[in-house]
Amino acid sequence: MANLATRLRELRRGRNLQQAQLAAALGLAQTTIGNYEQGNRFPSEQTLLRIADYFEVSLDYLLGRSDIALTTDRVLEFRTRDAPGRAALSAPAAAYLERLLNGQQQSAFESVISSIIEGRMSVHEVYREILEPALKAVGSMWETNETTVYFEHFVSHATESLLGQLRSFLVSGAPTKETIVLATVPGEQHELGLRMVSDFAEADGFRCIFLGANTPTDHIAKAVVDTKADVLAISATLAFDVDVVTDALHRVRARTSRRGRTPLRIVAGGQAFNLDRTLWKRVGADCFAATVDEAVPMIARLVSG
Ligand code: B12
């Protein structure tokens, strides 16, 4: 649990400041900063406010009561500022994000759904041209400190809920094709890309068992065995997941390679694989697809070949 001492040290180091430089900026003695960072002394109310203003963080953040650094005023400021990631968005994607930035989730959903009902866009286009770019723009905004982690969470949850509604436009009737288990490995929280793959594959007739983020390896293997899956679709976004993916695929193959059983086919995807186009081979997958549009034809080829 963070407290003032740890937060102050992190903030100072984050700005590459020596204790003496911070002390000079705040009109304090260097030993006073040292004492705050050691937890030996606690600032007065006035000094606390000065420190918070200097670093542009909320008091709750400074005292370790919240992990959201920005003050409400700064969050409001971000709403009106145009981030580079946002500037590059198409009009419908920008409108979707703008509505979420303003907390108008229902209106964001209604405008997307009406573009489908009125035939202006297909569901596939909505995924490809609105939702994926909007999510990626949030990533750039986060990277350049133009938005907060909580907004990233809000957009992900809102989009996940919208995907739930859009699924009914995509999928109808019982599956007619092979079974796919879709998962990300332990520690990997990014699941929206995989969820899109799952929805498109289901729309194409595949039976999809979507396990989502952070699935324990043994349970991925169990799902493959229990559902008699033909394909495992595995997604990884974070580069440091790669060793975990290699280990997971190795163990899943070992658990599912029974004599007489058609060998499990594994397709890999996600940003870690997009960055390094040979990675899928090294983790032990059978193939890779870079986008949701390429994923379903790739899976179809995999099961037919
Ligand atoms: C939403 C999001 C989150 C959400 C995820 C919620 C969820 N339910 O998925 C939350 C808030 C949990 C999160 C957490 C973190 N995130 Co994050 N996140 C994002 C964000 C903004 C969008 C991701 C997304 O959904 N993209 C849209 C989808 C549709 O695109 P996609 O994943 O590429 O998927 C497409 C293809 O790759 C492909 N595909 C995907 N999977 C598969 C699978 C198969 C089998 C196939 C064939 C194809 C395929 O098809 C998809 C559709 O075309 C990105 C920014 C970005 N550039 O994407 C950052 C980003 C991925 N996050 C990042 C980071 C650093 C983190 C955190 C460490 C810190 C943080 N920001 O909070 C934590 C890590 C948590 C963890 N342990 O996993 C970095 C990753 C940098 C890196 N490569 O190492 C990014 C790039 C942000 C950035 N600019 O730095 N994040």
Bound molecules: cobalamin
> Beta-strand percentage?
5-15%
Give the biggest beta sheet: 5 strands, parallel
Strand line-up of the largest beta sheet: 2-1-3-4-5
List SSEs in N-to-C order: HHHHHHHHHHHEHEHEHEHHEH
Q: What best-fitting shape do the alpha-carbon axes yield? A: globular
Description of the molecule:
This protein is an alpha/beta fold. It folds into three domains: 66 residues, 434 Repressor (Amino-terminal Domain), CATH 1.10.260; 96 residues, Methyltransferase, Methionine Synthase (B12-binding Domains), Chain A, domain 1 (Orthogonal Bundle); 126 residues, Rossmann fold (3-Layer(aba) Sandwich). The chain contains 17 helices and five strands. Strands 2-1-3-4-5 form a five-stranded parallel β-sheet, with helices on both faces. The longest helix has 22 residues. The N and C termini lie far apart (53 Å). About 3% of the residues have low confidence. The structure holds cobalamin.
Topology:
Elements (H helix, E strand, L loop, with lengths): L3 H11 L4 H8 L3 H9 L6 H11 L3 H4 L9 H9 L3 H4 L3 H11 L3 H13 L5 H21 L5 H22 L8 E6 L7 H12 L3 E6 L4 H10 L4 E5 L6 H15 L8 E5 L1 H5 L3 H5 L3 E2 L3 H13 L1
Parallel strand pairs: 1-2, 1-3, 3-4, 4-5
Bound molecules: cobalamin.
Cobalamin binds next to α10, α11, α12, β3 and β4.
